[in-house]
Q: What sequence folds into this?
């Protein structure tokens, strides 16, 4: 490695040039067109397909920005040195947090103004007991959670918590820029970065759970899992590492990052391998605890997915566990561009699919539920006739009735029955865009990816690719993991 | 040990000097018997041209063995040998077996690799493993040549090599 460091140019800057810019803009246009098409021709009146796609991608990419900031903070606090040469990528990823807040503003406005009905808890008056109305119109479980599952708390999490994350990312980035300009032996900027990180880590650790509960776990408001926040965060983490690998390989193909060696990629490959296993550990823990306890209101989440979404359910494990495990287990596959890029692509797409299966089934259920709810509880005046109009929803009504007027056994059994009824309700047919991503979903994904990369690359282009005054730069340039099997094939130093 | 080795070795104070010395020895085609360092030195494997360790292949085999032992064992016990219903679950309850399968996989792989590694390094009970110099476990870096039957000229050549490359001490020992 030492031969390298004498002739590298650590002052190089990434130039966000026409070709890449055009490609990304085309991707964004593809996304906008796909989203427009989904909105107009999505095939349902409440646009549930459009809104779930919007939420799914926003959460996925904002999460990658969040976890990049988290990695940045963790690495500064842990005195990590090896990441310094590529840490600007983390800073650039974190810049998407600002965009994420804006995108979530639309989801928030939609929740408040009733543009979409992804969130069962946000149905008007569902948490208010009104004796005038059918017992179906009052949901005891949602009422019990209404302190947290409320517009106010949703706003606090989405704009307050994420806003503070974005503020931390902004301050960190500003210090990093200042270090480039005026950094000296006192390392004062680096010390201040530590202070920000020391605040960010515990704050983000706790608040991210609340944000995740609000954004996606509350799509299934009767259900909850204490593993969910970790599970989701692990999903973001693997996606972020996969994206880092792909970005580094791309930048190297354009002639940048000659000093990011096989040693760095090997360690990122270990991250990809290790965090894929970590994700599986959380996936399985969540599954097994629920399977073992066998409570109806908990198992319904998996029963729904295993029965009606088997491709998503089992494909999730194949893409995010079996393939990375088998391909990256060997030492040398983490040092070969082909296998590393392959697994990075598989897991990046795989975790996008993971979020897809987290969002879609519950939201589809909520939108079905809303039609009945609207008719019975918001239209007013005709309860009693509903069994004729809503033949196959009969079980739902029955379930709700139990939960509400049967005070002796109102601890949620009714909702297990409700969810089961709903599973039967839309379990009959395969719906493109819900049971599996269609072209519109892929188009939306391409659009969001283009937007993310556009923000990321424009942030990256505003500073040196490598922080020249970082105290750990020399360590990073000499990073060596002590593997005897030779260097990356295209970067042999002999 | 039946065959004694006559060893000529030099001690260095710094790993960078050691690495330069090894490269120098390679360029002169000297046949290094072994190198001893108090801690892992980055780039030493490459300099010595050591091939990749196969220990992890052994680890994989031990791991698979652990997986099969745990999963096979539990499946046999709970379906044939002594079937018990736990929590209303089927006899063959794969999810319930996974944690123990995972633990035994890790246990077999770890213990198996440690035992294999110690055996390969001659550190198992019953092996005699003489050290050239106690200070190679502390602060000295050592290059050793085997000199059984070497001529005076060859030995002088090696001694000159040690002097040229900055060895602090040159010693011989029969082990």
A:
């Amino acid at each position: 490695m030492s031969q390298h460091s004498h002739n590298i140019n650590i002052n190089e800057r990434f130039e966000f040039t026409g070709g890449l810019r055009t490609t990304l803009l085309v991707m964004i246009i593809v996304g906008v067109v796909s989203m427009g098409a989904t909105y107009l021709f999505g095939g349902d009146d409440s646009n549930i397909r459009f809104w779930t796609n919007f939420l799914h991608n926003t959460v996925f990419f904002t999460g990658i920005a969040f976890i990049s900031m988290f990695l940045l903070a963790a690495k500064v606090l842990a005195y990590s040195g090896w990441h310094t040469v590529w840490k600007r990528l983390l800073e650039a990823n974190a810049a998407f947090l600002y965009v994420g807040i804006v995108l979530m503003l639309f989801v928030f406005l939609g929740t408040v103004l009733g543009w979409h009905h992804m969130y069962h808890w946000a149905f008007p008056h569902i948490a208010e007991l009104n004796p005038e109305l059918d017992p179906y119109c009052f949901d005891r479980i949602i009422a019990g959670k209404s302190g947290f599952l409320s517009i106010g708390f949703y706003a606090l999490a989405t704009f307050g918590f994420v806003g503070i994350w974005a503020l931390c990312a902004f301050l960190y980035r500003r210090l990093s820029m200042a270090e480039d300009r005026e950094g000296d032996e006192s390392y004062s900027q680096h010390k201040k970065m530590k202070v920000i990180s020391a605040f960010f880590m515990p704050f983000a650790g706790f608040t991210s759970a609340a944000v995740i509960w609000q954004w996606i776990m509350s799509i299934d408001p009767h259900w909850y899992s204490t593993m969910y926040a970790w599970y989701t965060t692990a999903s973001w983490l693997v996606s972020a590492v996969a994206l880092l690998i792909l970005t580094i390989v791309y930048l190297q193909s354009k002639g940048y990052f000659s000093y990011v060696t096989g040693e760095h990629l090997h360690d990122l490959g270990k991250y990809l391998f290790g965090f894929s296993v970590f994700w599986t550990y959380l996936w399985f823990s969540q599954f097994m605890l629920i399977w073992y306890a066998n409570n109806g209101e908990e198992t319904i989440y998996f029963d729904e997915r295993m029965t009606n979404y088997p491709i998503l359910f089992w494909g999730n494990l194949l893409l995010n566990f079996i393939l990375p495990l088998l391909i990256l287990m060997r030492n040398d596959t983490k040092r070969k561009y082909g296998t590393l890029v392959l697994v990075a692509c598989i897991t990046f797409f795989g975790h996008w699919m993971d979020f897809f299966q987290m969002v879609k089934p519950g939201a589809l259920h909520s939108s079905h539920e809303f039609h009945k709810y609207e008719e019975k509880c918001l239209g007013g005046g005709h309860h009693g006739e509903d069994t004729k109009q809503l033949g196959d929803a009969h079980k739902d009504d029955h379930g709700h009735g139990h939960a509400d007027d049967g005070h002796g056994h109102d601890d949620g059994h009714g909702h297990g029955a409700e969810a089961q009824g709903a599973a039967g309700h839309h379990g009959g047919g395969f719906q493109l865009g819900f049971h599996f991503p269609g072209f519109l979903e892929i188009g939306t994904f391409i659009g969001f990816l283009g937007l993310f990369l556009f923000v990321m690359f424009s942030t990256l282009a505003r500073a040196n690719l490598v922080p020249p005054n970082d105290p750990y730069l020399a360590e990073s340039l000499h990073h060596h993991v002590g593997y005897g099997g030779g260097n990356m094939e295209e970067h042999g130093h002999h | 040990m039946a065959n004694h080795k006559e060893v000529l070795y030099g001690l260095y104070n710094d790993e960078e000097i050691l690495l330069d010395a090894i490269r120098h020895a390679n360029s002169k085609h000297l046949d290094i018997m072994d190198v001893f360092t108090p801690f892992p030195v980055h780039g030493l494997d490459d300099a010595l041209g050591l091939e990749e360790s196969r220990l992890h292949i052994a680890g994989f085999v031990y791991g698979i063995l652990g997986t099969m032992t745990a999963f096979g064992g539990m499946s046999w016990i709970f379906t044939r040998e002594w079937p018990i219903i736990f929590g209303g679950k089927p006899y063959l309850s794969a999810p319930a077996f996974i944690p123990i399968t995972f633990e035994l996989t890790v246990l077999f792989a770890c213990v198996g690799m440690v035992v294999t590694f110690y055996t390969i390094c001659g550190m198992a009970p019953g092996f005699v493993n003489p050290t050239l110099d106690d200070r190679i476990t502390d602060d000295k870096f050592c290059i050793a040549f085997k000199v059984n039957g070497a001529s005076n000229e060859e030995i002088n050549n090696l001694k000159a090599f040690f002097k040229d490359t900055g060895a602090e001490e040159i010693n011989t020992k029969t082990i």
Q: What stands out?
A: The mean pLDDT of chain A is 86. The longest helix of chain A spans residues 337-378.
